[in-house]
């Protein structure tokens, strides 16, 4: 026993020593270390000219690690093969192995962003750039600007900015297949960007929310922004650049494409599309039973057309899907038996509980309605036994999926909407059961009024305009005014108390919605402005504001 104690103490001492070594001197008390690592030496030094090597070593004053290198490290011009940076564990040195063939007479910038951090506390060596040139000089010009979103109030983070030399070889199609000459990113919340170490010349400036991280434009996934005219990078000899360009990111509407149809139910086939469904015609061309018939309606939320048919057919159906000069042919093998069930009629109320004063009540159906009997529908206004029937106008929309009831609403009132059986009949002859929906409107003193005076002298505007009151994040349009000519005042009444935004859209083509842009057509998205402050409305408030509109 007396020999075991020293042995145990020795083992504990060794274990404690190894544990402390593994921690590499992590502090256990006192103030938190907030000092970033310091670069002691770079070999070859940053700023080296006539660079012809393949290896770079960075030495620091403490142990460092790298984080999110693939995201943070921006190399300009882009390299086809990402460099190897080692070690991946904590070390005082970082070795960079360049695997790509370097271009002659070119200035390269390796912008590490915040990827190099100290081992203990994660303090970043912020925005470190390593620069070298394969030629005799380091290019030293710069260019800066801002990125915003074309429709939303906040732009995406980490947007990639790209420059292509604007010369006789430049074509807009380059963005799909060829990487740019210079790249940088917006790595902060200010959405600003700076190109550094540029060569003098003219360039096409493009921004991408580059989902694939390949510096190529993929319209299906990426947002894009561009300046219509090329920029000129020149030596300003100490003078400021002048007005900063503002690029407006947008998602293109994809070119038309019909996808292979799928059987969504025993009596319904769904046709999905890229680029919208306007002008699309679906025609069955295979032999069918004599009593075969069908109807087509657009999905309310997606670029999809639903094809309802009866009676059920065996084996398969063949369709042509026509759009302008293009005709696609699809064969769909039909499912049978228990594998697929038919759609059954479901009718729901668009609203339940609160009915906004500025919205109309509607029934929504999952199958097109072919017959509606207004005599079997009543709108009762008032409480319980005091409720009285009021007149209404009924409108079935073009898809036959929504049935709207138009009636005069009053504040602080209760409504009961009753639909008797057989009031609505769907395409297959099914009818509704009894529907009884209770709704109420709010008191005027529980709501707010917002009045706006719009001053547009500083901006050349093309009417019509869309003036929208939206949710705080602008994801939902609450009320909208369609403006065909200037007015002294614009009023939004019966607004629920909330923090809101005001958005103005220049509706160039008069289609009552915002339209995106197209890069190959060099068409910018429709212009959008946001009232600078967020509007806060409270119950029983009447807020009046003046908006001095300015060019963005």
UniProtKB/TrEMBL annotation:
It holds the Pfam family Big_5. Residues 33-134 form the SbsA Ig-like domain. Keywords: Signal. InterPro entries: SbsA_Ig. This is SbsA Ig-like domain-containing protein.
């Amino acid at each position: 026993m007396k020999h075991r104690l020293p042995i145990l103490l020795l083992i504990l001492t060794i274990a404690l020593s190894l544990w402390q070594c593994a921690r590499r001197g992590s502090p256990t008390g006192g103030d938190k270390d907030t000092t970033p690592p310091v670069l002691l030496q770079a070999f070859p030094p940053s700023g080296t000219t006539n660079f012809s090597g393949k290896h770079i070593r960075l030495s620091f004053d403490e142990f460092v690690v790298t984080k999110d290198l693939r995201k943070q490290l921006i190399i300009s011009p882009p390299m086809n093969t990402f460099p190897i940076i080692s070690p991946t564990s904590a070390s005082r040195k970082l070795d960079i192995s360049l695997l790509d063939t370097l271009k002659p007479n070119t200035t390269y910038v390796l912008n590490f962003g915040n990827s190099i951090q100290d081992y203990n506390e994660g303090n970043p060596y912020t925005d470190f750039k390593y620069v070298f040139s394969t030629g005799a000089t380091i290019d030293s010009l710069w260019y800066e600007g801002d990125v915003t979103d074309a429709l939303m109030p906040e732009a995406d983070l980490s947007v990639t900015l790209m420059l292509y030399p604007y010369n006789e070889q430049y074509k807009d199609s380059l963005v799909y297949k060829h990487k740019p000459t210079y790249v940088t990113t917006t790595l902060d919340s200010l959405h600003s960007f700076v190109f550094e170490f540029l060569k003098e010349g003219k360039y096409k400036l493009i921004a991408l929310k580059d989902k694939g991280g390949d510096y190529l434009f993929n319209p299906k996934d990426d947002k894009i922004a561009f300046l219509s005219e090329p920029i000129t990078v020149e030596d300003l000899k100490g003078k400021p650049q002048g007005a900063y360009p503002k690029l407006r990111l947008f998602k293109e509407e994809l070119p038309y494409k019909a996808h292979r149809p799928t059987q969504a139910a025993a009596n319904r086939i769904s046709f999905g599309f890229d680029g919208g469904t306007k002008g699309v015609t679906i025609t069955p061309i295979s032999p069918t039973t004599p009593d075969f018939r069908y109807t087509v309606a657009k999905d309310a939320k997606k670029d999809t057309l639903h094809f309802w048919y009866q009676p059920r057919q065996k084996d398969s159906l063949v369709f042509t899907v026509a759009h302008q000069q293009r005709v696609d042919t699809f064969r769909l093998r039909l499912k049978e038996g228990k594998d697929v069930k038919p759609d059954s009629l479901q009718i729901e109320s668009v609203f339940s509980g609160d009915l906004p004063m500025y919205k109309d009540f509607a029934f929504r159906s999952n199958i097109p309605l072919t017959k509606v009997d207004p005599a079997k529908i009543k709108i009762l206004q008032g409480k319980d036994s005091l409720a009285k029937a009021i007149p209404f106008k009924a409108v079935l929309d073009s898809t036959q999926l929504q049935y709207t009831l138009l009636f005069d609403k009053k504040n602080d009132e209760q409504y009961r909407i009753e639909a008797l059986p057989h009031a609505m009949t769907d395409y297959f002859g099914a009818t509704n059961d009894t529907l009884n929906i209770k709704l109420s409107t709010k008191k005027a003193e529980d709501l707010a009024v917002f009045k706006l005076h719009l001053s547009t002298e500083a901006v050349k505007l093309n009417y019509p305009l869309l003036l929208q009151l939206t949710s705080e994040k602008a994801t939902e349009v609450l009320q909208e005014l369609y403006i065909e000519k200037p007015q002294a005042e614009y009023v939004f009444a019966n607004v629920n108390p909330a923090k809101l935004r005001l958005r103005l859209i220049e509706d160039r083509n008069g289609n009552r919605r915002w339209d995106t842009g197209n890069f190959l057509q060099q068409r910018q998205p429709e212009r959008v402005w946001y009232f600078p402050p967020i509007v806060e409305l409270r119950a029983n408030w009447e807020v009046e504001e003046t908006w001095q509109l300015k060019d963005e």
